Prior knowledge:
The complex is a heterotrimer. Chain A is mainly alpha-helical. Chain A has 9 helices and no strands. The model of chain A has no long low-confidence stretch (mean pLDDT about 90). Chain C contains 7 helices and 10 strands. In chain C, helix 3 runs parallel beside helix 5.
Amino acid sequence: MRYARRALIVAWKDLVVERRSKETLNALLFFSLALLFVFQFTLGPDRERLAAVLPGVLWLGFILSGVLGLGRTFLVERDNDCWEALLLAPGDKSAVYVGKLAASLALMLVVEAIVLALFTLFFNVDLGPALPGLALVIVLGTLGIAAVGALFAAMTAQVRTRELLFPVLLLPVLVPVLLGTVKATEALLLREPLASVAHWWQLLVAADVVYVVVGLLTFDVLLEG
Amino acid sequence: MVKVLGWLAVVGIAAGLTMGFAVAPREVTQGNVQRIMYLHVPAVWVAYLAFIVGFVASVVYLARRRDTADRLAHAACEVGTVFLGVNIATGAIWGKPTWGTWWTWDARLTSVAVVFVMFLAYLLLRQAVEDPERGARYAAVLGIVAALNIPLVHFSVYWWRTLHQPPSLLKPGTSAMPPSILAALLINFAALALLGAYFIARRARVLAAEAEALA
Amino acid sequence: MMTHEALIEIVGLVRLFGATRVLDGVSLTVGSGEAVALLGPNGSGKSTLLKIVATLLRPTRGTARVLGHDCVREAEAVRAGLGLIAHGAHVYDDLTALENLRFWTTLSGLPADRERLTAALGDVALERHAGIRVRTFSVGMKRRLALARLSLARPRVLLLDEPFAGLDQRGRKWLQTRLEAFKAGGGALLMATHSFGRELEIADRLAILAGGRVALDTPRGALGSDDVQRLYAAHTEDAAL
């Protein structure tokens, strides 16, 4: 299907450019590592206290990395007037949104997987049977972050105060996602069954649907520059 | 037309004040401080009404690109934010003598605070984008996202915390409130809605005048 | 240069930027197989006009139609038949020439198999640079890559904003040949330019933009660069009055 081809080529382009320039991925990984150390230093060796705040700390790390990384997705389009070229290429512009979303999602999930592995290693957490449920929550939450992030990144890419404005726009809107993911993660780490947090991951699904649909419908308006 | 709205609002406020201070009974446990509820509660209802207006105006702007729709969206979101600010401030004033603290992280207060910050960000975006046409488009998209996000914020925060007085007005079946209190609330709501509409209309006019002055 | 159908129709175009009336009632047509050169001082609105025809900007009033489609209401249809060569190179520096072609062609919904792309690169003498990242390309090479992309898209209308700027002598000759071929194939060409020299040879008509309007629309005929200079000075001075 042509739409899928077009979305995929946008995602492919973003990932290739990212792989070659290595700007974002490295920064995100080092940032997450730094967060890891900061948390260890501030929270101290008390295992019980660490276990209690771990879900919040983990998702704080994910969202902050998202804010750093997502804000940059459209910067590459500013060079050589590629932005106007994207607008000029005929076809449904929402495919560009889907491609950007897919690439950001892939990048964020890679960073999150590494950070999660490091967290479990350094804070001695046994994920075990919680892992599948946790994976679901992480995917749903990250999809929400990336869906809104891609939209707001397009809005702020050409604004002078981008680095400040992007997190200011993104964080309040993401409160439901943050609450849902943290509460669900908390329950899952306490070995509660996935069904007990059904309302949380259903909220995440609802949020994801809302954000992606709005993105699909309004992205071309943002691309007009 | 706008002048009529203004005068109606004045009448409404007078009626509301009368209801709130004279007609409605003094609350048993909290005393007269409880009367602030007649401003606090309707303020948030009017705010959310304003955001719905902003949402519809934003959609219309994206579809039709009419500047009047953009100005209406801008004015509505601004006035809504102000009314939320009133709600938060009156909530704090009510809370200090009643619960002993200016702020608690309970469901209602937190969700209002989140929505307040969301629309503050909306106003910030409007300021940050220099090109007015682009700013209008971006703000419309943000207005749509923020408005649709309001129920998500409410549910997530409510599930996270439940300390606030249960929303008595929205419970089906018997109302726990004596009729005079209910009447006072509704009249104050109508008064504030008229006032809000008046503010929105005036603000939209100012925005139009600004746009003309630049042209 | 028989013009059979009007491929670009601009009628009464007005564009305001805040208080400034950059375009104040521009009307112009370009027919099939025809090239119109748009002349005018800086700030006269040449780029703005091109952007509106290219669907990148909305006019405040008036209409622009390309290939019979309205630029505002049928923007995607216009984009399918239109090509733009402007200041930006429209390339990703970290991708190779071949990858850039593959990206833009696929995004436009066109077939992008390797043979087709390599052939297009060959047409613009870039096949040896297929696997090299565009970051190292000169202005002329990037321009050739843009033309390779257009040759795959086959637009019927070409909009050019100072296309010869930054090209060396060989590059200019080469571009001129390409544009002649495009015209001969029935395409319509609208070119904004500053120079009165040899670049104007491709133009069949001259349109001088001044005071937000087309001050003069005349066939180029046998006008030499001095004649053009005189006309230009006359009309842009009149507008200033």
